[in-house]
Design brief:
306 residues, D-Maltodextrin-Binding Protein, domain 2, 2 domains, 46% helix, rod-shaped
């Protein structure tokens, strides 16, 4: 509130309360670590602001006027609310100084979760988030052992020991190197797919689970496939595919750049469509503010999971 060019602020009200409580300008000035003339000027500013005398002062006595008594009552409440606000904001800021430990499966954690963390950091710059990667089994085991606070995993819904939210469904794509015969052949029959060399993720990975689920639904066993390699790294599988050692199946987010630069080429299999759900997983316990805010972001349909 502004009147006559003077901004009414908490510091002025605190000075007024101190003068009223001590009934002495000299004592109040000492407590406030300012000069007595400066304190007198502050009180004149308040009186000018409210266009009312707030104090009756003589050489032998001090008292508040009716306006001063009214201002004192409201000033005490305002200062108390201001102090509580400062305290609560300090607690909030300190809560974001904690470190949030997030675990994610290697594909999603390597390509999508860093984007979500970046968005979260823009809103909460004081937050510290550490991201660790592993396969689905490792990440959920770390969550169970309290080695991480939050898990982001692909695949089947984890058990009831956790709180689980499905936050995304990721399309998966069959990819091959961008050389003959794949430059001209994009559509494969199911029979062709069963014979071509296939490079798979290791057992326990969410990508493998999603592939197996789709095949099982189609009545196809892994033994029917021509699996030539099993690797535990998306990058190593990409390198093997680019070298022409076989085709593989990835979440689209993991090969988005490769498809754009055309180092890899998508293939389409008759009657087969691969996809996998993405889950946000955490324990049934009271969470710190930083964890609650991150969970809220990841569940958001806008600027949550990238």
């Amino acid at each position: 509130m502004v009147k006559g060019g003077i901004l009414l602020n908490i510091k002025l009200l605190k000075a007024f309360i101190t003068v009223a409580d001590t009934e002495s300008f000299s004592k109040a000035a000492q407590l406030l670590f300012i000069s007595q003339p400066a304190l007198s000027q502050n009180m004149k500013q308040l009186e000018a602001h409210f266009t009312a005398d707030l104090m009756k002062r003589t050489s032998h006595s001090f008292s508040l006027t009716e306006a001063g008594e009214l201002l004192y009552k409201h000033a005490v409440n305002l200062v108390a609310m201001s102090d509580l606000m400062e305290k609560d904001m300090k607690v909030l800021r300190s809560s974001f100084n904690d470190t949030l430990l997030v675990g994610a499966t290697s594909v999603i954690g390597g390509y999508a979760v860093p984007c979500s963390i970046f968005i979260f950091k823009k809103k909460h710059p004081d937050a510290t988030i550490k991201l660790s990667l592993g396969n689905r089994r490792q990440v959920l085991d770390n969550l169970q052992k309290d080695l991480i606070d939050i898990a982001i995993v692909e695949g089947d819904m984890p058990n009831d020991n956790f709180i689980v939210s499905e936050i995304h469904t990721e399309e998966m794509v069959v990819v091959a190197t961008n050389v003959e015969p794949w430059t001209t052949q994009r559509n494969l029959s199911l029979e062709d797919f069963l014979t071509i060399p296939l490079i798979m993720r290791e057992e326990g990975s969410a990508t493998r689970w999603a592939i197996e689920r789709t095949l099982n639904q189609a009545g196809i066993s892994l033994q029917s496939l021509n699996i030539v390699m099993e690797l535990n790294s998306s990058d190593s599988i990409k390198a093997a595919v680019e070298a022409g050692h076989g085709v593989s199946i990835f979440p689209r987010v993991a090969v988005k750049k490769d498809l754009y630069t055309k180092t890899l080429r998508p293939l389409y299999i008759d009657t087969l469509t691969f996809s996998q759900p993405i889950h946000l997983v955490y324990k049934r316990k009271v969470h710190r503010i930083i964890a609650s805010e991150f969970i809220k972001l990841m569940k958001s349909s806008v600027n949550g999971f990238c």
